Amino acid sequence: MKIAHALRAGGTSLALAAAMSGCSPSTSSTTDNGGRIRLAMLQPPRSGLTPFSDDAFKLSRWATAETLVTLDENGEALPHLAAEWKRVGDKAWEFILREDVEFHDGTKLTAAAVANTLVRATKAAPKPRILDGVQLTAEAEGEHRVRIATAAVDPLLPQRLSSPQLAILAESAYRADGTVSPVGTGSGPFKLVAVNGTSTATLDRFDRYWGKRSTAAGIDVSFVPDGTARGAALRTDSADVVEAIPVSQAPLLDSKLIHEVPMPRTNTLYLNNATGPFSDPGLRAAARKALNPGDIVKSVYEGRADVAAGLLGPALPWAAALRASSQSISEPGSPAGAKIRLGTFSDRAELPEVAVLVEQQLEAAGFVVEQVVREYAHFEKDMLAGAFDAVILSRATVLDSGDPVAYMFSDFSCKGSFNIAHVCDQEIDRALEKASSTEPGPERRAAVMAAEAEILKRDVAIPMLHERVIQGEATGVSGVARDPRERALIMAQSSASRGAH
């Protein structure tokens, strides 16, 4: 199998090398620590790089579009384009802007520009998901002061404003036809100067950046959906930084060039609490006892994942220390002959393989398993309708605010919009309400973990493993972010040292 991977990589690497080898006309040399960074990315733009879509995360990873605040590793808000902020009522906040920020089109960062972006975000279709269920208003109060309010009390407003989907662009970014163009309208250390459809993008150093001037002269981006080709790009020195190298490619690469980054993503077995065998808490406890996630990590992920101790993994560094006991409150029942319908989807290549092992482990305990695997587009409707007794899902546990409460509410509360476990438990809801209403900080984190314990001890869902992403960095690359939230990648201090090409 490894030989086949290597043979396939040969052809794809030549094409990628050709695509990435040409120097940008704006800087024709790549001298030590002063050249351009060649970046191979997993997915091409899906929405024309509009910041109100998931494409915003590309703009953030290229350090071209910036937000009012950023987050530390614990999810706490830190100043960025906003120098400071304060609450001016239960539902309103006042943000004071930096006065030395210039957009790439030459205009200045002002309160009017900030209000323009935020108001447009509230009217976008579809709306940025960070604003789902949030009614937000923004008004300029002078040149550098913005008042931002919500219809309901929202202690997480500063964290919401860290979402790349709320990056502040110059007013020239917003076109009369309703489209938004980030080309030449951001404020970061790199200026986006060209986008070639879904093939490439080019960014140059922005010399008038308000912060530290970038080390690299620019970034040359290639979109490379094929995982074998991305692995080959690193192996053949066709790229300096490579996103999301598949596990299958890792053994073919120099271990010094790959770095595993824990992701806030948990592979979980959701059990249907409302109907079928798993409406019996004893059978849910039996399923939990039957699973051996360590075998799944070893065989499917080749050891490049973390066995789950809870819903929240090592990408949230505070979770493990605060984890409360989640021992099952039910004694395992006898699964002998219990028929269950196990479903998952094929869009994520590893999930069908995980399903095979889960089926084997459940059958070894006495369950009778029917396995169903479909493309997600043909799977979600039945999943949400409760057509399966158990579902294997790879789920992001930290959404755009950097806080896990929204995910837990969505998946495990009585009114959750993604409640595929079909659970409705008053103790869980009370714990989630407490976590949601607690101000950000240590007390909120403790409340989050108390809610996790309430979910786990009822065997509502069984977390199996926490995923990692493999990031490639060529020899001579330094200063690149390894960000579990996938917001940051190329930074002002990033550089790639190599000879001329």
UniProtKB/TrEMBL annotation:
Query: What residue range is the signal peptide?
Result: 1-17
- Limits of the Solute-binding protein family domain: 79-416
**SUPFAM superfamilies of this UniProt entry?**
Periplasmic binding protein-like II (SSF53850)
Pfam families attached here?
SBP_bac_5
Question: Coiled-coil intervals in this record?
Answer: none
Q: Which UniProt keywords apply?
A: Signal
Q: What GO CC annotations are associated with the protein?
A: ATP-binding cassette (ABC) transporter complex; periplasmic space
Picking any one GO biological process from the record gives: peptide transport
What CDD domains has UniProt attached to this entry? PBP2_NikA_DppA_OppA_like_3
Q: Which GO terms describe its molecular function?
A: peptide transmembrane transporter activity
Q: InterPro entries attached here?
A: Peptide/Ni-bd, SBP_5, SBP_5_dom
Q: Would you tell me the protein name for this molecule?
A: ABC transporter substrate-binding protein
Natural source organism: Sinomonas humi
